[in-house]
Amino acid sequence: MSGKLTLPILLLVAFFAMSAGAVVAPVLPFMVEPLSTSREAVGLVLGVYTFSTAFFMFFLSTVMDRLGRKTVLVPCLLINGVIGVACYFAPDLRTLLILRFIQGIGIAGMFPIVMTMIGELYSGLGRVDAMGKMSMTTGIGGVSAPLIGGLMAVYGWNVPFLFYGLTVPLAIIALLVLPETNMPESRSNHSALDLARNLKEFRISYTMFLAFAIFFLLYTMVIYIPFLLKDGYGFDAKQAGLALGFQGIAMALVASRARILAKHWGKQKLVRTGFMVTGLALAGTIFANTLLWNMLFIFLFGVGFGMVQPSLNTLITQVAPPKMMGGIVSLYNIMKYVGQTAAPLILALVLFNFSLRAVFATSSITAFMVAVSIHLAGDIYAGLDDDE
Fold first, then answer.
1. Is the CB of residue 228 less than 8 Å from the CB of residue 356?
2. I want to staple 71 with a disulfide (CB 3.0 to 4.6 A). Which of 67, 139, 166, 365 is the partner?
3. What gap in Å lies between CA 305 and CA 139, rounded to an integer?
């Protein structure tokens, strides 16, 4: 029975790891007044937790391969739930940012362990399929989490933080049901220096760069689309959450076909095309002059993201040395959160000095440049599709 529940539980963990940002994203514009802050500063509610996640994920990168997976996962789920609920009581922005920083410790161990356990439990196209289901779950979360956050915000800007409390019972279920995939005889005592040496392998370091890039682009949409919809169409938090949900629908639809797309196109071509699609979507928001066009470009971005994410998640588990998979996957996920952290910091400067359109133009150009770099890199993942 527990075997049948393993993947669903891992998918739930991935969902809650993703929801750390998605639940509160549509509420950001409506935090400005009660927290007596600015629209530039309020983006740190997302940025500080992503920075914290990346920071603590670095320390967990070696711990994960020395200890059992559940030994790390269960405390992380508890921290996320307890501190997430504590955010509800934050009286000001400073306190909220401190709590979000602590919450990042919990998030730091969730995504890497899910990906590592999938990499250890599945192989070949079965691994692609499981990674696709994980991306589909986060895509569904992209639909439901912003909507949940928007609906809960009807009762107060801080109410969405109570949603994180659900990871407390999930921690208990994970402890009782999940198998241990990192048995004592398979554990490694490698150091951070050993992990750093592996970054000299171009395929590993380049895959991490691509993770940084796609999540930088994702947070362009997550943070600034609500502002665009509020300024241009008078959207409230619930409506902004629904709009972001179109992106999640597209992610889920495409990610559910990850196995088929990877089999027919190959993962590298799929990633390159996905970056091109996200670039087109970001460019489209600059020129869209109706709500319908904006919604279409939000959906199109989700299509591109859904093409990139499952393939990258699979590739990093393929190029990582087996005994260092947990550490390499952690570093890979660090780059995701570095991308999420960099987006509000860099793009806030663009917004302050130029305009909202310049924000989307900057990220659009970035997406196309990454697609070009993948083309110039040649067949760096040659042979990996053959294993499937």
1. yes
2. 67
3. 9
